[in-house]
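Problem statement: downstream parser choked on a complex file, so we are re-checking the raw output for the magnesium ion run. The parser issue turned out to be on our end (a line-ending mismatch), but while we're here, posting the original submission so the record is complete.
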Amino acid sequence: MNLKSRLTGLLREGEIYGSQGLFQESLQKYREARQLIQETSGIKNRDSLLAVLSRKINTFEEAAQKVDQTPAEAQMSAQQQDLVKKLFAYSPDQDPDSIALEGALALAKFGQFKRALAEFREMLSKESLRLQAAKNIIRCHMAMSDGQEAVVEYGQWMQSGLFSRRQLEHLRAFLHNLVEKKGIDATLPQPSEDTPTAEPTVAADEIDEEEILDISSIVIHFDSGPYSGKQLELDVSFQTGNVISLLISSHEKEIIDNLTVGVKLENLQFFSPIAIFRGSGVISAKNKIDAGPKQGDYSLDIKIIGAE
Amino acid sequence: MAVFNVRNREIECKIVYYGPGRCGKTTNLEHIYRSFKKQVSGQMVSIDTEGDRTLFFDFLPMGVGKVMGCDVRLQLYTVPGQVKYSSTRRLVLKGADGIVFVADSLAVRREKNMLSLKDLHNNLKSYSSSVFKVPLVMQYNKRDLEAQGIPLMSVAQMEKDLNSQLKVPAFEASALTGRGVGLTLKECLKRTLKSLQKELRLSE
Ligand SMILES: Nc1nc2c(ncn2[C@@H]2O[C@H](COP(=O)(O)OP(=O)(O)OP(=O)(O)O)[C@@H](O)[C@H]2O)c(=O)[nH]1
Ligand SMILES: [Mg+2]
């Protein structure tokens, strides 16, 4: 190939890639072209060609840098947030409470923490949602920053008289756990005799002391045995306290056979809507579903025994 | 996940366009939006950056007529292709009933195609699904650039790189001109509905 057509080819590629936003590929071609010119003597308009090339290279270097530096987090418009709520809130039923909760959770999953926070705060006024909302407020704070905000807000809840003593203690333990994980040195006030509290209600009494987090899915990593190195992610269909129920498709037959009651799973990864953590668990029940749409699949209960 | 509304006799299913950054996913949806006016049932929404890179997703709702006596409503999504948006990509993929994998025919993007297919594979696995189970169609996009003397991979090469194990239907396309865009979607829809039908029958 002669020099001219090689050069034209490189420049054409550089131009097209650049116009499609493939800046690295474009730069590569322009740099090759530059090198080609530098290595060849006797090119007529060599200097002006080199000047053009270095301008191009500059432009695309800047463009590439701009793309790299765009943070992964971004704010949507309110309208876009509404759409996200509509499209990504997986609400199992038409109950307005769960629709509200799922909607705010969808916002949090897409990193729209400010609006999610506002919506969770609104839910605090509803007794049935209060504790869930408070926990999600804490999670949003933890995801947005170092958690100092969560500590402040917890302090306000202490004075609000909205929560029962038991709920406050529960929230304190929940927050303490998260704050500690971030290595923050914060003293969290304990609810005392003088703390204004709400009368315990049925909802408040339902709290399981051992409740860990609301887990939406888990990944089982097999570190030994026939599935060593494999992993399986399962959605949590139900959670009561520290026992989570999972559905395993009958397609995973071989894996199911290996998961028997009493087996200890050492390497579990838990996904809650905002946080991800590791831990271990024991299989506490396994049942084949023999009616309905999930017939043939298995439901598996795992008792979480440790979480980091 | 498909929603069956028995009372209204309606099926709502979700098809996701997946692929490496800049391969032409959004351009596919834009073409569909312009050319299938009759089927499009609402605005196309793009949540992107100033440089047109998808930031969260594109969304296009369609109605595609009756199948099995039910109205089929279709939701098309694209994921953001850039590597750094991996968690959004995973969120948007969730519950997909069918997938179009858009591969970039540019020779310089060969490795990115393979990495993105691997990423799809991993994300599906994390939802206890798999590239081998989900209704999937391949599209080899930007074929028009060949005429401009830009080095493209041959279709044989792309088949070998991306489809030798999957063996799913693959279409040459130019999302910019619209060539192959409709065919790709139709085939994906066909496969998706077939698989939903099978699922429905099993659960009856
Ligand atoms: N020549 C040509 N250009 C195309 C084609 N498809 C897309 N492009 C161009 O490629 C660039 C990227 O297209 P998009 O549709 O935004 O790509 P994307 O896959 O949505 O990219 P991300 O949102 O970043 O993942 C744009 O400049 C398009 O005009 C095609 O078939 N031929
Ligand atoms: Mg896009």
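For whoever reads this later: Chain A touches chain B through 39 residues (CB under 8 Å).
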